[in-house]
Amino acid sequence: MSTNRQFVLVRRPHGEPVPEDFSLVSKEIPQAPEGGIVVRNRYISLDPAQRGWMDDAESYMPPIPLGDAVRATTVGTVHESRNPDFVEGQWVMGLNAIEDYSVALPGGFTMPVDIDAVASPSNYLSALGAVGMTAYFGLLETGKPAEGDTLLVTGAAGAVGSLVGQIGKLQGCRVIGIAGGAEKCRRLIEDYGFDVAIDYRDKSVETLADEVRAAAPKGVNVQFENVGGPVMEAGILNLAHYARVVLCGLISEYNAPERVGMRNLWQVLATRSTIHGFIVADYAERFGEGGAQLAQWMADGSLRFDEDVQEGMENVYPAFMRLFSGKNTGKLVLKIA
Amino acid sequence: MSTNRQFVLVRRPHGEPVPEDFSLVSKEIPQAPEGGIVVRNRYISLDPAQRGWMDDAESYMPPIPLGDAVRATTVGTVHESRNPDFVEGQWVMGLNAIEDYSVALPGGFTMPVDIDAVASPSNYLSALGAVGMTAYFGLLETGKPAEGDTLLVTGAAGAVGSLVGQIGKLQGCRVIGIAGGAEKCRRLIEDYGFDVAIDYRDKSVETLADEVRAAAPKGVNVQFENVGGPVMEAGILNLAHYARVVLCGLISEYNAPERVGMRNLWQVLATRSTIHGFIVADYAERFGEGGAQLAQWMADGSLRFDEDVQEGMENVYPAFMRLFSGKNTGKLVLKIA
């Protein structure tokens, strides 16, 4: 690779992103500045959060500037180093972009990773990366499940959801998952050990709420929310008293020009429940602790984790859109080298 | 009064209650059962929560059965006692109904009140009753305001809201109130000491949000929500990081056939804020503590509280509707004897 291909945001998407919102451009390979390094990106994380960063809206991170490559967490090797802490060829992860080569500066988010400790370097973008930390700290620290609680997970077959359900089972919860389609529901039960799987497709809020009620006759104590909209509402209508809703993601809304939100606020009030906005970065200082526990559970067979690895920089757009069509079967990763 | 007039729910309201949903009937004065008492109701509390109890929906209390008098907190005197703890003529408060005479059974919510300690017996339905306790525990225990925080109160000129704002000032907060109309906004500033008053009438969510932003440039740390809908959203769009939203009431929604809810869930997530469903009954064991503090603040002039006392059992319906038209100028109470 003698050039640096970049997947650039050229227009802010209105609703669902279309190919014309992006441009794949070739630039010169950058040179490391004093104290910095250049990373050869090899695995790129594709996440729903990136859709939010494409909007011109205040958020927990600034919008991606138009003309810049789309921001992404990546795993790769050090291509050039002008920093004594990094040597060429060493594996690292960091917050970079969808491009072949990224410049990383001192004091940024770049850190070494030990690829001999994992089945694939991509694991640092999934179970041992933000996805795993989100499931671990979001459920345990924010949802605070107790043994015997009923846990409802939406987007349950997704990267975060499938981990949340399994961690919930390890805490002694009854675990209900909502996912799209029979195949995903089969995986929830057979692969991830959920107690009940509910297919949301082609169902009204009322029907979905009835199915959640049948599965959770004493109510939902913890709702781990990845989806928003009617799927979320079906859970909210079944909250137990003093329930905790972990608001982790709202994938059904990211491409919607009009936000649906949550119409059943009264149930939150009447059940004295709480809704907690959750951003995994708040737990950054404890990632070591979370990673160690997740790695142990994976090693002893308590946790199963799937990756959906797509290949090739030329496939970024269709790969990214798998997140919104519900096609991905595990953490979505793009392998580019 | 030789008969017992009852304001009976005969049909569940669809949207805004109409006179035909109720019937004023006359019955015989009830007799006290073994161990119970009959209360001559004199002051009746009219509250937004009663509208919720008229619906056939699960809530923190069962729906009012059709054919029963509308449930209400009242203050009155003991008319007949077959309980050694109560003597005839004694003042009591309790959860009764909109009727001249109520039967109260042992183990219920009836308790003696000391009317010599207050300006009017109706105070036990307002500042020293559920309204005062809601403001006190809702703000201090759930909202957890810190000195220097910005507090946004919706329904700010209402019974709960006007107390919340004043208690917020006593905690060292900058206090912004949203209310309907110039006269209410004037009262917020002049009578209750709010720093900023915003009139929501005839304004879009965007305009309201801009006005909140101008008043709270560092964002809203605590939002005390009594209203719901667009007024709530204008605050949510301005939450600071780690803000607390006390979900105390949703008066804009109680008569709405379709719930609006909250469309800006993303802001809750991105700011890592929390929304807390609040029901004052959860603090029943601490009402003594709250009452003592509120009474002290009122005695030393730190807190001002207004009552809107309407008169006459024949005026229940128009009096109750003042809650929803925004006409009431303080805690709404009906004096019937």
Question: Would you kindly provide a written description of the structure presented here, covering whatever features stand out?
Answer:
The structure is a homodimer. With about 325 residues, chain A is α/β, with parallel strands linked by helices. Chain A folds into 2 domains: about 5-125 and about 305-335, Medium-chain alcohol dehydrogenases, catalytic domain (Quinone Oxidoreductase, Chain A, domain 1, Alpha-Beta Complex); about 130-280, Rossmann fold, CATH 3.40.50. Chain A contains 10 helices and 15 strands. Chain A has helices at about 50-55, 130-145, 160-170, 180-190, 205-215, 230-235, 250-255, 265-270, 285-300, 315-325, and strands at about 5-10, 20-30, 35-45, 70-80, 90-95, 100-105, 110, 150-155, 175-180, 195-200, 220-225, 240-245, 275, 305-310, 330-335. In chain A, strands 3, 4, 5, 6, 7, 14 and 15 form a 7-stranded mixed beta sheet that branches. In chain A, β8 (about 150-155), α3 and β9 form a beta-alpha-beta unit. The termini of chain A are close together. The interface between A and B is medium-sized, with 32 and 32 residues. β13 (about 275) of chain A pairs antiparallel with β13 (about 275) of chain B, so a sheet runs across the interface.
Distance between the termini of chain A: 9 Å
Helix content of chain A: 25-40%
- The dominant shape of chain A is globular
Beta-strand portion of chain A reads 25-35%
By CATH, the topology of the largest domain in chain A is Quinone Oxidoreductase, Chain A, domain 1
The largest pleated sheet of chain A is described as:
7 strands, mixed
CATH C-level name of the largest domain in chain A: Alpha Beta
User: What would you give as the CATH superfamily of the largest domain in chain A?
Assistant: Medium-chain alcohol dehydrogenases, catalytic domain
**Beta strand count of chain A:** 15
Rg over C-alpha atoms of chain A, rounded to the nearest angstrom: 20 Å
What is the H-and-E element order of chain A? EEEHEEEEHEHEHEHEHEHHEHEHE
Mean pLDDT of chain A: 94
CATH architecture of the largest domain in chain A: Alpha-Beta Complex
Given the structure, what is the number of helices of chain A?
10
- Structural class by sheet pairing and helices of chain A: alpha/beta
Give the assembly state of these chains: homodimer
Biggest protein-protein contact in the assembly:
A-B, 32 and 32 residues
Number of domains of chain A: 2
